[in-house]
Amino acid sequence: MATTIERATETAQAHDTFPINGTDYIEFYVGNAKQAAHYYRTAFGFQLVGYRGPETGVRDRASYLLQQDKIRFVLTTPIRPDLSDEAKTIADHIYKHGDGVRDLALWVDDARDAFEKAIERGAKPVHEPKVLKDTEGEIVIAAFQTYGETIHSLVERKNYKGLFMPGFVPLKQHYNPPPVGLKYVDHCVGNVELGKMNVWVEFYAHVMGFRNLLTFDDEDISTEYSSLMSKVMANGNDRIKFPINEPAPGKKKSQIDEYLDFYQGPGVQHMALATDDIVQTVTVLRDRGVEFLAAPTSYYADLQKRVGRIDEPLDVLAALGILVDRDPDGYLLQIFTKPVEDRPTVFYEIIQRKGAKSFGKGNFKALFEAIEQEQAKRGNL
Ligand code: FE2
Prior knowledge:
With 381 residues, the chain is of the alpha+beta class. It has helices at residues 2-10, 33-42, 85-97, 111-120, 197-208, 255-263, 278-287, 303-307, 314-320, 364-378; strands spanning 22-29, 47-52, 61-68, 71-78, 100-108, 125-134, 137-145, 151-156, 169-170, 182-191, 211-216, 227-234, 241-248, 267-275, 323-327, 330-336, 347-354. The protein has two domains: 14-170, 2,3-Dihydroxybiphenyl 1,2-Dioxygenase, domain 1, CATH 3.10.180; 182-378, 2,3-Dihydroxybiphenyl 1,2-Dioxygenase, domain 1 (Roll), CATH 3.10.180. A nine-stranded mixed beta sheet has the order 6-7-8-5-1-4-3-2-9. A hairpin with a 5-residue loop joins strand 7 (137-145) and strand 8 (151-156). Residues 187, 189, 270, 272, 349, 359 line the site of fe (ii) ion (FE2).
């Protein structure tokens, strides 16, 4: 158990190739953005704040901008894939991957400089910096490729005072379910093929200057049936944390293999959204229909012994299925949803950090057993 911590303290400092202020937005390509927006509003408490589509002069696709505190999701669907290459690309993405994350967009101060440096260091360009203008100012945006068909847009918004970016119009709605207390994106996890984890670790280290914050090998993360390996890459201010997983050989198919089969390749596995009150947030999410993985009943029996004193009553955590882990800096509470679509691909983590900077390693075994029970039900174990 101590090996992870020792390795973490040995890691080098990050030397950011370009400064990143945080996650700007996460864009999903989805089959029906109108209905997906309804789901994220009703179930997850996002507010619908902006829209771009035929009514605003975009003929081939529609995008809904959802927001909850610092978290911004953009849900985009093609409505006329025959009208443009861009809309066809979106349609192809959905055909291949199902609903999934296309863009983990990064908020930067100078998108031209960031793009130039990333490309110089070997990133594959998606599009060159372009300037989007309206009466509120201008946005500069460029993009490069990461694992699978996922991209990182670089968004410079220091000369923009509008809602989000040119093209989006504000929306006022009659239906506004209240937020559930989600605050910011804590980390976004990618699944890549066997043997590719270190390729992408090297990409984030070399192209972005990220450091390897933590390493989990298959001895840390294994159950009777399957295992995986994971390395967490982080930028200098720790606002961007990208764990990268790859499958490790087990007796049966690992959860990462299942994802890779159904997503048809590498992609974003889960996004961790932070709250200041996980008991309240999870209570509301459950009431609104979000389904969570259940912890094994044995999990809470020795929890106190493992994590020591915590502020939250154990019976409340047990009733909700919230997991707890401790590291030298404090403790964290976390819970994982079931996949949010029919393909067993994308899911969410709800996390509350009380000092802890790690990722819940002490929960991996319990968590993976819960995931495997679900996999077995799908016939994929
Ligand atoms: Fe996570």
